[in-house]
Amino acid sequence: MKAKFTPLAGALTLAAGMLMSAGAHAETIKIAIAGPFTGAVTQYGAMVKEGVDTAVEMINASGGVLGKQLETVVMDDGCEPKQGPVVANRVVNDGIHYVVGHVCSGATIAATNIYEAEGVVMVSPSATAPAVTDGKNYHMIFRTIGRDDQQGPAAAQFIINTIKPQAVAVLHDKQSYGQGIAAAVRDELEKAGVKVSMFEGINAGDSDYSAVITKIRSSGADFVYYGGYHPEMGLLLRQAAEQGLNAKFMGPEGVGNPDINAIAGAAVDGMLVTLPADFTQDPANAEIVKAFTDKNRDPGGAFQLTAFAATKAIAEGIKGAGADDPAKVADWLHANTVSTPIGEISWNDQGDLKNFRFDVFTWKQDGTKEVYK
């Protein structure tokens, strides 16, 4: 028998569905994972997701937060600034109060105004550009990673004191993250009297950087710093080797991706990279490291443990506030310290970490890395 659909039946069905949806929503606390899950740097989104998933699984296994389980919702911004607000509006419209992300600085900067205005707590485990927080007077925006003006000077001091080059070519990808950190390195080098023989942007996504490599050689640089992501760094390394450029290359955490090996080949061997300290070596993190490895996840990438820390901060903030209330959670985070696998972390008034440690690593042809010795 075919059921007859009436306006009244439809209204009752809709009302019942809304009640069930509201009940289901009340059973969990949702955390959006915002980052690139399509595009050229999907690996960074995957790193962050591994960190969040592992934290959520451990927190849920221990009883959840305020008697509720955490639930993740993946949202893709493709690492594109224009998609940052699109994702942020989806988060707001879906009634989600907490975000781990965004991953790329450009997309993060584009989304933060919406989160701040709509009362959503956002904790980025990877966006390092100072412009994410500088001069914004935000209350809802946090990070669990250091800034470019911490990472850049750390890289520059290493170049000055350890490498001691004759001249440095500083390149960047013309984007918020890459150009910002490259400028920080340049400024620190020049302040120390190190010759910066060129400061130039390249176009992300290009396939031929032979012209810029020729310029590096002509500039007399024996060291190259590149601010940007791994696809372009991989091509620069490979094409520099093909053209016989004898210069050491260095980059920020954005180049520290195992996929660079497939792009650069043997030329990647010896690349220098600044990354968050290897917190997997801390004996206090043994249980967390095991939780990653039990799921065939790598805890030693650039952002897995900073993403775990971001998730832990949100969970502790909710517990500390005593309610699933993002405004109260933000208040609590600003006033307290959280124990995480990246250490005891606390934030200044604008949501930046008071302290964060970057180390210099040597990248190897087999995809492994080790602290520079």
From TrEMBL:
In terms of Pfam families, this protein maps to: Peripla_BP_6
Q: Where is the signal peptide?
A: 1-26
**Domain Leucine-binding protein, which positions?**
28-367
InterPro entries, per database record: Leu-bd, Leu_Ile_Val-bd, Peripla_BP_I
User: Which domain of life does this protein belong to?
Assistant: Bacteria
Family of this protein: Belongs to the leucine-binding protein family.
- Report the protein name in the record: Branched-chain amino acid ABC transporter substrate-binding protein
Q: Which organism is it from?
A: Yanghanlia caeni
Q: What is the lineage of its organism?
A: Bacteria, Pseudomonadati, Pseudomonadota, Betaproteobacteria, Burkholderiales
